[in-house]
């Protein structure tokens, strides 16, 4: 009997340790959610409700009495409406040139139209500033023809709208292209058999089917312009202010109540629009799930005029998309003297890259961003996976739904509101973080990055969980595998491909993140996005080479990481299939 007790005791201890580990994991997950998801947002609401400057109505009244605030709201709405129209016209046109019309050179067009996917945020704004700004190549070229053109011609509302137009077409590239491919081409042929010409048949038959996807893209573009930060900050000039930069300005003036109220209004607007966009996305999925007897076929253009117009528009859009990236790459290899003259010199140099990699002040922002990404991405992957696992294992549906909604909370809030919540919540000591003041410390930025990444991680990991074959885990259970072993041998291999791809997306998002970074960074963790924003705003000819080298490095790293993650995910998928 003694021997039996002795052998049972280690097993009991093992189960006890496992239960403690599970309890500790759940407790740590709960602490993170309460501390970094709920507490900052509640702090924003509290800053409005318990303002030291009067009631909510009085704070709102002061906001409306401020000419700068009213102007920021007006300019934001005007820019959002115009940018949404122009971005969707360009985005839809690009997708139709790729999928609906038989045009030569689609490989080049695809690369050009995909540029916004890897050349966005502060990097893209910097690239446009380098091409069209005060010392930009286009500016200097135009001034040789028309000397009266001012140096700052590319600034203000027009410049911001132009940048929005060509950097917010990624939604169309990612979602509208697959939607067109799923359209039943026999409907187009039926319309043509009734005597309808090709183009009218295309627009009258295809566009109504694509309406949910187009509406979702419209709403996502509108939300992006509403919360735009980098473009108006760098290119807006002294007269233009949008809501997101205004929130930063109010916070800098110590009026957290006014900043919080403006942020809550912006958050409410984006939440309503996002809910609508998600509904449109579901409608699109429902409409596209039916079988298509005939895959969609690109239509041949007839008539020289139609062909010329289509080719001219398609390649003009490609040139506009590629110009900032190509010119930025060339400027990064140009001598300083050529940059000062606004010329592209045939003599190439790598001095800017050497400076970036050898000068402490130059390479420190890049190292900081890589380090911050290396901290935030694994944290987000672990927390998002735990959330998906708890939701998947929950026996009560409402618990799983609550976990998923919690993970989606940052998705419904603009980045500027997330940053403001961190500033208010952790600007003074809090018991949730051991009485420490996180504002001004190194860790506030990677924690904020982690929060921003959670919705994407949670969404894709949860979708993968939902697609798992239950019989695989049942088989492992029948063989006596413990829950932890089942997770490591069955679930984790299935999650690995999506985790790698989500990590790549997170890397691209954090490497050049600007909105949250510019509000939370300090001298110890100044990231590359903030450095780029400062350099782009100054437009010092002596620093243009370094600035463009940063942009090229960001873009190159983004492309390499995405391709590497895609390759590793493919290998992991094949290994997973092989195991089965």
Question: Can you describe what's shown?
Answer:
The chain has 580 residues and is mainly α. It has a domain at 57-331: MetI-like fold. The chain has 26 helices and no strands. The protein has helices at residues 2-49, 56-65, 67-99, 106-113, 115-118, 121-132, 137-145, 157-167, 170-181, 185-193, 198-226, 230-235, 243-252, 256-288, 304-331, 336-341, 351-358, 360-393, 397-408, 415-425, 444-466, 470-478, 483-511, 515-520, 528-538, 541-579. Helix 2 (56-65) crosses helix 14 (256-288), helix 4 packs across helix 15 and helix 17 (351-358) packs across helix 18. The longest helix is centred in the N-terminal third of the chain and has 48 residues, at 2-49. The protein is globular, with a radius of gyration of 26 Å.
Please describe the structure with a list of short key phrases separated by commas or semicolons.
580 residues; mainly alpha; MetI-like fold; 26 helices
